[in-house]
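Here is an idea for our session: we take a single protein and study its fold together. Once you have written the record down, we can walk along the chain together.
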Amino acid sequence: MIKKIDNEINWVGERSLILYDQEFERPLKEATQAFYAQKAEQWADEVSCHEYVLKVAHHLKREEQNCVNLLEYETKDKLIKIIEKELIENKAEMVTLKQGTGCEFMFNERKVEQLQMMYKVFSRVDDTLKHIIDQMNPYIMQEGGKIVSNPEN
């Protein structure tokens, strides 16, 4: 039951989130999934690997703050998992392999800060760091080969 007390609206009685879940949270989760699936496709096509990672970090931070300020506590983890799945898990391999801006480029050009940011974002989702590692192994082999074959060593 809702009562107005001193110009404030307060809930009185048993707290039930059935209507919140059915009428608000479920449609919000569906809309969030659709929105970020579309954004992930757009960004993956239009921006560099590093720009993609920056966009993901920015949107995750913004959405986390929105959840804290606007939604029930229980909704935050559900929404963030959806966003992480769409922006990180579903695009991790594609982003790391991005020609001319992906991990190979970052390793070869010593883009340490960009790699750190990618690691920070990808580490939010299990099994996505393997895509960075897959790109790191050939780089290590290449650089190790240079060291071994250098006559000055």
Observations:
- Strands lie at 2-5, 8-11.
- The mean pLDDT is 89.
- The chain has one domain: 15-149.
